[in-house]
Amino acid sequence: MEVQVTVNGQSHSADCEPRTLLVHFIREQLGLTGTNIGCDTSSCGACTVHIDGESVKSCTMFAAQARGADITTIEGLAADDGTLHPMQQAFMECHGLQCGYCTPGMVMAATSLLSENPSPTETEVREGLEGNLCRCTGYHNIVKSVLAAAGGES
Amino acid sequence: MSSVGTPMLRKEDPKLLTGEGKYVDDIQVAGQLWMGMVRSPYAHATINSVDASAAAEAPGVHAVYTATDLLGMGLWIGPLPCAWPVTPDMVNPPHFPVADGEVHHVGEIVAVVLADDRYRAADAAELVVVDYEPLPVVASVADAVADASMVHSSLESNKAYHWPLIPDPDALEAAFANATHHVDASFVQQRMIPSAMEPRGVLAVPSPHGGDITLYSATQVPHILKVMVAATTGIPESKIRVIAPAVGGGFGAKLNVNPDELLAVTLANKLGRPVRWTETRSEAAFSTHQGRGQNQRIELAADGDGKLLGVRVHLDADMGAYMMLITPGVPLLGSFLYTGVYAVPAFGFTCDGWFTNLTPTDAYRGAGRPEASYAIERAMDILASKVGIGPDEIRRRNYLAGGEHFENLDVPSTLTFDSGHYGPSLDRALELAGYGDLRAEQQARRDGGSTKQLGIGMCTYVEICGLAPSRALGGLGYGAGGWEHATVRMLPTGKVEVVSGSTPHGQGHETSWSQIVADKLGVDPADVEVLHSDTAISPLGLDTYGSRSLAVGGVAIANACDKVVEKAKLIAAHSMEASADDMEFDGGMFSVAGSPDKAMAIQEIAFGAFTAHDLPDGMEPNLQEQTTWDPPNFAFPFGTHVAVVEIDEDTGNVELQNYIAVDDCGVQVNPMIVAGQVHGGIAQGVGQALWEGANYDEDGNCTNPSFMDYLVPSPTEMPNFTLDFTVTPSTSNPLGVKGVGEAGTIGSAAAVINAVCDGLSPYGVTDIEMPATPQRVWRAIQDGKGGAS
After folding, report:
1. Domain spans of chain B?
2. Given phi > 0 = left and psi -120 to 50 = alpha, else beta, which region is B226?
3. Is it the case that residue B660 has pLDDT exceeding 80?
């Protein structure tokens, strides 16, 4: 079936099976491999993207369900000139990533969190990211990154 | 200005933050076939027959191979390797990538589908019909020890080996005979599912012109994998290129040689088409090895003051169904550390390795050392309560060298600790924790009848890093050396190219190595390019595990830089018509002693070495040096961790309120990266203490293989960590570095469980098994209160 979506401001149309998960569609049909897959139970959040402004685990829906949607992936976060998004910059400066595998999902979830709550407390950051797992950082520097990004934006 | 010691931001990050990092599953190649694994649902069974006809006719299926087909195709000239036969008579049943007539754990591969995409491969795998005859299952170490049924029908006992380390049996006997206090404690190190966020994946690509094959793998060990692929398949080493692209965490789980890797490479080679596979998370409990899995018994003999006289340890270690690369050696990596940071006159250790019908075990962050640290540090708390002194005091009374600084100290487990200084790490940790105030609050809560008990636990650990002196590994029966290789070349433009044999998967090697080189050569770290993880670019290496990268690989790079400077000095002296003995080198500039106006930059010399127009007679062109560093000794990082927990009497929930870690990994290259390593390590140890563990039923089924049931800690369960460091340089290498990748994990499980037991002491609880889940804690409280439930 034909699925048309707008991803990072660009319209894409591709053929896929009705059962194709959105994350596989993004990665394999559209070739945007920044969005990662860390589990098969919608537990880890590595595949988090924004759909019409909301953060969504892209393994929890079929590509067909996203028809016509406006999707932002990690590839669409930095400015066109390559300047990192403040959240990406904060993750870099606070050492909020190590292996980088959870990072795209973590950054997407974190930007969504700040759009809903621009000045979260540490507890609110932890609760807001509860659906995203990281095995490297113990979350200490991820939380620090998000708080730094919030501070920088306010 | 020195770059080493500064928290330089990571070179790796921009790519990883923008989705540009390429992990194995991100690499797409034309004509690729996906493997779908048909896995055994039985832990132990005979395979009567396999009917692949329906699968073979399914849409998008290229081929289906049963185990019989595959074993008959001559793909492998030998079984999967075990590089560590720990005793000459160790039992090691043959282990091929697919089961040969009998399956020995749930998830063992019995057939392989090749299909056009991952969906079709999974569909077709479901259509393969296998007729099994179930056999009795050995589902735990206890079952294995009973020896009532065999893990492999071919075995006569489930015992794989017996390994003793008893330097002086008479002294050990005497120590226990003379003891005033005797601690006899048993602990269970539950099986852990390592759970690197990137699942393992593999992609084998034959070259279009034939003959060569490139294997992309989510591996920590591309160099070892290359050797082992050659040894097991007969494909000449020179025809194999292994690439570990971006790798999303390893923690030991990616240091093996796996069935999927050998299937992909041989099928791709045979078919002339790319073959790939990526494990699903729920599959990983069967397709990737697990960690820990030990039943420990530790005995302490102490005098009336609590001073240790002897330590005696026995392990029953769970190998799982097969010996993987270093399965049998993992428990033994801890053997030397069961005396911990303490002066112990007499020591004895024995380990029995047992097969079970479960997923094989192998290295998981710390590999043997967290287990050792846990046992001795839990036992020390028990001793403290027997003696009637605090956990801090029992430690102080027993620290090696009285807690003072030492270097090159022999310990009874036959090792020589490079350096240590344990007293200050405990002092600082307790100070940061506000130990006195915590004890006061704990008492106030107890006095006030609070249902929220406070528990305070501590652990002073020591670990073995910098694996390893090759001779020491040889003595232990390990099948390889422990050196690391480095090449440092200055390019004509003045940039520096570093080729390292160590293989990062999140540790930030490109950054740390650049810092070392920047200082050594006097160049900008931005001008240093670090190449790694591709055997065609970096042909020599022994990869990344055991906190070895800096203490072995980093030192190799530093030594290669020294050789570059030595050669550059000769060129500079020649160019400046001075004696090499008069040359000085500082900040990237060569100058003649006493003539500061004459100077040449190392970049200028690099260009001169490239053009070779005017080199000293007999000197080879180019400025490039390589070294292989084989360390003379291990490095022994240490530290003290303090955990503060609040235990809800009504629910049994344990909340980690505060965590203080004072670590000493010797000289630090990048303190930001060091802290990050400690953070992550702590989280994994806390996970083992409180939530994680692979559960198996009596039929050998893992009942919590997915992230729905296997509780990797989430952000809400972790507190912020309070870190500090002491710096006691290692004497094992010229940089004074030790290693920090595993430290957090080695210190944390014991600190947390000591805290839980401390908090539960009013209920008479003296021990609790990991993970200390709310149910277990609640049950312990009820039992302590008198059995009401």
Report:
1. 13-135+197-249+254-287, 291-467+633-785, 483-629
2. alpha
3. yes
Q: Who contacts B475 (Cβ-Cβ below 8 Å, separation ≥6)? A: none
Query: Taking each helix axis from N to C terminus, what angle separates B743-760 and B671-690, rounded to the nearest 10 degrees?
Result: 40
CATH 3.90.1170.50 fits B13-135+197-249+254-287, yes or no: yes
Q: What is the DSSP letter of B106?
A: T
Mean pLDDT for B724-728 is: 98
Residues 41-80 in A contacting B (C-alpha not used; CB under 8 Å): 41, 43-44, 46, 73-75, 77-78
Distance CA B615, CA B607 (A): 11
Q: Is A109 helix (H, G, I), strand (E, B) or coil?
A: helix
> Residues with Cβ < 8 Å from B48, sequence gap 6 or more?
B131, B132, B133
Confirm or reject CATH 3.40.30.10 for domain B291-467+633-785, answering yes or no.
no
Was domain B483-629 assigned CATH 3.30.365.10? Answer: yes
Does residue B622 have a pLDDT over 50? yes
> Per-residue confidence at B209, pLDDT binned at 50, 70, 90?
confident
Question: Token digits for A26?
Answer: 């993004």
Task: Return the sign of the alpha-carbon dihedral for residues B713, B715, B716, B721.
Answer: positive
pLDDT for B597 = 84
| Confidence at residue B402, expressed as pLDDT on a 0 to 100 scale | 98
Q: Which tens digits make up the pLDDT trace of B88-119?
A: 999 999 999 999 999 999 999 999 999 999 99
- CATH 3.10.20.30 domain locations along chain A: 2-76
- Could you please state the CATH topology (level 3) that the domain comprising A86-153 is classified under: DNA polymerase; domain 1 (1.10.150)
**pLDDT band at residue B366 using 50, 70 and 90 as cut-offs:** very high
Contact status of A84 with chain B (Cβ, < 8 Å):
yes
Is the domain covering A2-76 a CATH 3.40.50.450 domain? no
Q: Which structure tokens are listed for B311? A: 């330590």
Q: How would you classify the pairing of strands B528-531 and B496-500?
A: parallel
How far does A100 lie from chain B, in Å, by closest CA?
A: 5
Tell me if domain B13-135+197-249+254-287 and domain B483-629 are identical in fold.
Answer: no
Kindly state whether B59 is in contact with chain A, defined as any CB-CB distance less than 8 angstroms.
Answer: no
Task: Give span(s): CATH 1.10.150.120, chain A.
Answer: 86-153
ipTM greater than 0.95, yes or no?
Answer: yes
Give per-residue pLDDT as tens, B383-414. Answer: 999 999 999 999 999 999 999 999 999 998 88
Q: Tell me the CB-side half-sphere exposure of residue A41, using CA atoms within 13 A.
A: 14
Return the residue of A nearest to B674 by Cα: A95
Q: Tell me the shortest Cα–Cα distance from B308 to chain A, in angstroms.
A: 35
pLDDT at res. A152:
62
Tell me the C-alpha distance between B624 and B460, whole Å: 43
Q: What is the pLDDT of residue A129?
A: 98
- Does position B76 have pLDDT exceeding 60, yes or no? yes
